[in-house]
Please model this.
Amino acid sequence: MNTKKFYDSADEFYAILSAQERLTANRKIRLPDADGTLMVGTDNISIEGLYGKRYVAALTQTRILAPVATVFTPSTSALYGIVWTWTDRGVFTGTLAGAFTLDGSTDLWLRDTRDLVSFEVTTVNTVVLTMTDNDTLSSRRIEINVL
Model:
């Protein structure tokens, strides 16, 4: 599959476009507006309908308190309700029943990865984000996609 990222003018957010292995004709797509709506021909479709499940948030956390998520994903998203907990120093667990996959199609994107150690889907209900020995997240933007 051929995939491309297109960043906004502030180089803060991006849109991903992916083409199927085989197309039957050329297609023209206008990238999403602020609420994630794409224009394809004369039909509006949600970006989640094209990409799968998507979660975008900024995580803020101090000491041993649970991270607080400022969620940018619409409340209709299948991943909207992820609950974050502090598990250990620099280790944060996201939980949502049946939200994730174990086949490698759940991925994480961080704008700033300098503190990232690992991202792991431990069950279909949980993901674990491990940062360097760090007890604080300050509006850390995170994106999780499930194809």
